[in-house]
Amino acid sequence: MMEGDTKLSLQAKKWVQDALLDSSKRSKKIVRAQAYSLARKPSSREQFQHARWDGRRILNFAVRDGHRFLCDLLLEELKINPNLQDSFDDTTPLHHAAATGQVEVIELLLNKYFCDIEAKDCGRSTPLCLATLAGRNAALQKLLDCGASTEAQCFLGQPIHIATWGGNITAIQMFHKANPDVVNSEIHELCTPLVVASLNDSNDCFKYLAEVADVSAKHLMYKVICRVSSEESSMERVRILLDCGVNPNSYDAVTLFEGPPILCAAKRGWKNLVGILLSFTDEIPGIEWTVDGVMEHVSSELFQQTDQEQGTKRVCALKDRMLRALKDKNYLAADIICKVLYVDMDREEWDRYHSLCSFLIFYGMKSMFPTPTIDAEAIFALSWMLGVSKETERVLLGVKACVALEPDNERYKEFLVHVTKMMEDNNGRK
User: Per-residue pLDDT for 2 more than 50?
Assistant: First the structure.
């Protein structure tokens, strides 16, 4: 039991069990009468304010698991404070209603009980952030209608950044309608929604934001080349940017240590994309300005040696920034930096750092408290816990994260081999 929590008496526990089993109108009437009787005793009311059920404050539990009858009784009869934050993770009932998409409960909590619509949990998430994370668009719209701020910021950015990261174009459109300026919101000096879209998979989100956002606010051309999974998808995005007037000679050489987009395309072996960029890009001295000339240049021994040296410096600098962002729980910034590193970092090493970002984002989305740190031993312990609950894919993420942080640790490397083989065996049996 956590500090400040109370135990329920046997009578109170029996009443909760009856409320959870309401199977007829008659039993509901009896349970409601019992609630009225309990409410007349100050000691009973105090019990319920801080009591836990299934690991949560009892009102949070009732809302989270959709027990509407119990929820109504706790609010109406026992007068539970609906703004009381859970000592486990600082969530309120409104957080749980938003995360589970219970529009009627959201309306009840806001309009009748005047709950704090901007309450923050341990990950700095407001109810609107959690509704966005969970893809609960109806709940999201209800919160917006009730005045929720689109500028609240959690570990994964503002709600529009979260929607873009998750590829939820409907949510992006809702936020844009509610606040037209939000499509250009910048956090951590590098993250606008369009930057997030440039480095993620949803072409629909990228197209929409390219139409409504300021495409000149951040350097985008390099980003749509360095991380996008296919040449075809990258070509589509490059054409959109060129049609919007984006200059392909522009790149972020200072903050993210980017290079000329055309050379990034050539390094990835994307000859067709090089052909598109060639006529829009200023000639680079020392390179024969043809498609074959650019491709030959990046294949030359001199270029590869120089590029490897610069890439090593870039990886060291950005890796340090990524770890600092993770330490500060600015997971969106860390995720963006990690994706920019895709071209220059060894694939196996990159996969492990990407696993580290994904592992911490997963825990942030679950509002786990205390949230994991970037301490390898702490993450390893969490991985063991996930293994007990048979969440093998999360275990693999966690162990890769440990190896990323301590690449010479033999215990982590051995366990990674074991978990990888276990995953392969499980996939083979399916």
Answer: no
More confident: 85 or 173:
173
Structure tokens at 140: 């999201």
Dihedrals phi, psi of 53, to nearest 5 degrees: -145, 125
The single residue listed with the structure tokens 């060639």 is 278
- How far is Cα 19 from Cα 32, in angstroms, rounded to an integer? 8
**Residue 312 vs residues 109, 308, 316, 344: alpha-carbon distances, Å:** 53, 6, 6, 8
Which contiguous run of DSSP H or E holds residue 52? strand 52-53
Q: Which of 111, 69, 61, 117 is nearest to 86 (CA)?
A: 61
For residue range 247-303, list pLDDT tens digits in order.
999 999 888 889 999 999 999 999 999 999 999 999 999 999 999 999 999 999 999
Give the 3-state secondary structure of 78-129.
CCCCCCCCCCCCCCCHHHHHHHCCCHHHHHHHHHCCCCCCCCCCCCCCCHHH
Whether the CA torsion 185, 190, 193, 194 is positive or negative: it is positive
Q: How far apart are CA 270 and CA 233, in angstroms?
A: 11
Residue 383 pLDDT: 77
The answer to whether residues 389 and 401 touch, using CB atoms and an 8 Å cutoff, is: no
Q: How many residues does the chain have?
A: 430
pLDDT per position as a tens digit, 361-398: 887 776 554 456 678 888 888 777 766 556 778 888 88
Contact by Cβ (8 Å): 173, 318 = no
Q: What is the rounded CA–CA span in Å between residue 391 and residue 422?
A: 12
Residue in this structure with the two tokens 């893809």, named with its chain if needed: 135
Cβ distance 398 to 383 under 8 Å? Answer: yes
Q: Cα-atom radius of gyration of the chain, to the nearest Å? A: 26
Q: Give the β-pairing of 52-53 and 56-57.
A: antiparallel
Distance of CA 216 to the CA centre of its chain: 25
Amino acid, res. 197: A
The pLDDT mean for the chain works out to 89
